[in-house]
Amino acid sequence: MKKLDIIYEDKDILVINKPPKLLTISDGKTDNTLYSMASSYVKKQHKSNKIFIVHRLDKDTSGIIIFAKNLKVKNYLQTNWLSTTRQYIGILEGKLLKPKGIIKQYLKESITHQVYVSKTGDYAETHYQVLNYTNNFTVVKINIKTGKKHQIRVAFSNLGYPLIGDKKYHSKTDPIKRLGLHANYLKVKLNNKDYEFKSKIPKEFLNFYKEDKNA
Question: Cα torsion at 171, 177, 180, 184 (round to 10°)?
Answer without folding.
Answer: 170
